[in-house]
């Protein structure tokens, strides 16, 4: 059981928007920055979002992140078939003194 | 271009030991913290351990504490993970990751991973 809770799967049609949630507590998301990672099938994870909403260079603005209280959200607009991947949220947990990840969300672009 | 290349994975018997390496290039290795993150087959990501840029401080998850030791050689631009008393549940792909720490913590570059299989 992961410390951060994500939906196991989400789906949407090409061109549509999808939202992936990440729920935690005051000891992790509530008081620390959140990052998001994309893992395409058979590849290593890739940083999508850091510090709640910032995008590394090269990440399209179709990907956006936000945080409110003890939850974070990753929005992906203009869905493409190439976006099919697993998405993970992550942050530091102050109480446990560890980095924690969500269980991952599998995105299917129908 | 940042490159991280892990090596050292393989098949090991329960109770055995293994040392993973991660050769870094494309950035000033000694200026950045580094981490190991693993992923069991068909499962999610699990943070294993992190080390500061100088190597003076390390941080470990409970799953590896007392069995895994992270270290680095800044003269060789290489990160290590020495694993002992290996168990079946340690079977996973182990990724090394360049790590940004401070008020925040995130993994901005990842290697392709090396597979560790613990089985008799």
List its salient traits.
A: 110 residues; mainly beta; 6-stranded mixed β-sheet; 0% helix; globular; B: mainly beta
Architecture blueprint of SSEs:
The complex is a heterodimer of chains A (110) and B (120).
Chain A: E1 9-12, E2 18-23, E3 35-39, E4 46-49, E5 63-68, E6 71-76, E7 85-93, E8 98-101, E9 105-109
Parallel strand pairs in A: 1-9
Antiparallel strand pairs in A: 2-6, 3-4, 3-7, 5-6, 7-8, 7-9
Chain B: E1 3-7, E2 10-12, E3 18-25, E4 33-39, E5 45-51, E6 58-60, E7 68-73, E8 78-83, E9 92-100, E10 106-110, E11 114-118
Parallel strand pairs in B: 2-11
Antiparallel strand pairs in B: 1-3, 3-8, 4-5, 4-9, 5-6, 7-8, 9-10, 9-11
Summary?
The complex is a heterodimer of chains A (110) and B (120). With 110 residues, chain A is an all-beta fold. Chain A has strands at residues 9-12, 18-23, 35-39, 46-49, 63-68, 71-76, 85-93, 98-101, 105-109.
